[in-house]
Design brief:
CATH topology of chain B: TIM Barrel
CATH superfamily of chain B: Aldolase class I
CATH class of chain A: Alpha Beta
CATH superfamily of chain A: Class I glutamine amidotransferase (GATase) domain
Oligomer: heterodimer
Structural class of chain B: alpha/beta
Number of strands of chain B: 12
Distance between the termini of chain B: 31 Å
Number of domains of chain A: 1
Structural class of chain A: alpha/beta
Radius of gyration of chain B: 17 Å
Number of strands of chain A: 14
Strand content of chain B: 25-35%
CATH architecture of chain B: Alpha-Beta Barrel
Distance between the termini of chain A: 13 Å
CATH topology of chain A: Rossmann fold
Helix content of chain B: 25-40%
């Protein structure tokens, strides 16, 4: 079998080493790059991200990568966007005012509620291990990056904002925080976003990276 | 409320994992990453590495240890000890750490909290507090591993640093650390009711049941464990089972399914 190749977009944000090591653990050859030509020629691309939405979009803009990532969507290149990377996939975000995103999956990014559905205050950011639930009752996870996972698997989250896809079909999995439903995995065509960190979610997270390598 | 996090804490001096009592009287336990990998496989939800002499010598030596750990360990790692600038923090985060814990440098220069939070996000800015009880319901902030007093009140200090952008508090009781007498529940309760960020209780866990009062009454979101794990008095699986049996939410972790397919 050929060694799977993964290109991680390096735009100066986040713990890239852990993402790289996660894919290497899954047997992939990993390239870190901010070069549009390398990214466009890649078999599969990862958009990581930690920090604030507007800073990340600015960083992508400065490297002329916004149009490159949009083009990946048109090319049908498998794209995995992690944490803030997933939020960047959306049309817009309310973090620090109003900011446009990549618009690859319709919907917006909004703050995680500071109150539970019962009205009690809850801690922000949402940090920790939460269980994944299936968001579309009639559709199982076959064919998604969660194919090898099970409902109830716990994965590691750390975030204060969340993606709300306009079309419910784009939400694959969610978690419950203070009674609220929060998007955990969203997808459209060959694009997948994970709000949690698969590279920090132990073996159950590595399964997701492994599945992406085989896509 | 998220699941309770069970965190293995590794205090490191030079190349060695060490353990002391009241953060002093250090004893060498072994190679940090041998223990770290074992705790990862047991199902630790996170790891904390503290370079316990870094503040004294002004440099954190954990970069190489973390880079090595990141090859095999895929849970969040927090690194503390001697981080006194944005550059130090960046170097540690580039080595595979997800969060930095800052204590001594924040006392000397509180601005570092907001600098790190602005640069890398609040989620990776962990305020580390070494607390010593000085009177009923009063604790003083110590630095340099419980060696230096600061005159700062723990509660006021926690509030100030959280308002400056600290996203989490690692709260170590110097009085209980290494004693196996259980956590200082009153301390944890006082801080967790004063700030709205997650609190990691550290210091004093002697047996699995010790985590129940600090979570139920103290409001801790996570517990850091050292001695109990290093000396094998309990495995993380046993501790998780104790928490679950008492009705606390914990991460579902099945060793068999995770590792054998």
């Amino acid at each position: 079998m050929n060694t799977p190749e993964v290109t991680i977009i390096d735009y100066g944000v986040g713990n890239l080493l852990s993402v790289k090591r996660g894919f290497e653990h899954c047997g992939a050859k990993v390239v870190l790059s901010s070069d549009p030509n390398i990214i466009l020629a890649s078999h599969r691309v990862v958009l990581p991200g930690v920090g604030a939405f507007p800073n990340a979009m600015d960083a992508l803009q400065k490297l002329n990568l916004v149009s490159v990532i949009k083009e990946l969507g048109e090319l049908g290149t498998p794209l995995l966007a992690i944490c803030l990377g997933m939020q960047l996939l959306m049309d817009e975000s309310e973090e620090f005012g109003f900011n446009l995103g990549l618009g690859l999956i319709p919907g917006r990014v909004v703050a995680v509620s500071e109150n539970s559905v019962e009205g009690t205050s809850q801690k922000i950011p949402h940090i920790g291990w939460s269980s994944l639930y299936n968001s579309c009752e009639n559709i199982n996870w076959k064919g998604t990056l969660l194919q090898d996972n099970e409902v109830g698997d716990s994965v590691y989250f750390v975030h204060s904002y969340m993606a709300q896809p306009a079309n419910p079909i784009n939400q694959v999995a969610h978690v419950i925080y203070g009674g609220h439903r929060i998007s955990a995995v969203i997808s459209k065509d060959r694009i997948t976003g994970c709000q949690f960190h698969p590279e920090k979610s132990g073996d159950l997270g590595l399964k997701i990276l492994r599945k992406f390598c085989l896509d | 409320m998220t699941n309770l996090r069970l965190i293995a804490r590794l205090d490191v001096k030079g190349p060695n994992l060490i353990k002391g009592i009241h953060l002093e009287g250090l004893r060498v336990i072994g190679a940090p990453n041998d223990f770290a990998l074992d705790y990862y496989r047991q199902g630790a939800d996170e790891l904390i590495y503290m370079d316990i002499v870094a503040s004294l010598y002004g440099r954190n030596h954990l970069g190489e240890i973390i880079k090595d750990a990141a090859k095999d360990i895929f849970v969040p790692m927090t690194v503390g000890g001697g981080i006194r600038s944005i550059e130090n923090a960046r170097e540690i985060l580039r080595s595979g750490a997800d969060k930095v814990a800052i204590n001594t440098a924040a006392v000397a220069n509180p601005g570092i909290i907001s600098d790190v939070a602005r640069q890398f996000g609040s989620q990776c800015m962990v305020l580390s507090i070494e607390a010593k009880k000085i009177a009923n319901d009063h604790w003083e902030v110590y630095t340099d591993n419980g060696r230096e007093r600061t005159g700062l009140d723990v509660i006021e200090w926690a509030k100030l640093c959280v308002s400056n952008g600290a996203g989490e508090v690692l709260l170590t009781s110097v009085d209980r650390e290494g004693t196996r007498k259980g956590f200082d529940v009153e301390l944890v309760k006082a801080v967790s009711s004063a700030v709205n960020v997650p609190i990691i209780a550290s210091g004093g866990m002697g047996k699995s049941e010790d985590l129940l009062p600090v979570v139920n009454d103290g409001g801790a979101d996570a517990v850091a464990m050292a001695d109990i794990l290093h000396y094998g008095r309990a495995k993380i699986g046993d501790i998780r089972a104790t928490a679950k049996a008492a009705g606390l939410g914990v991460r579902r972790y099945e060793y068999a399914r995770s590792n054998h397919n």
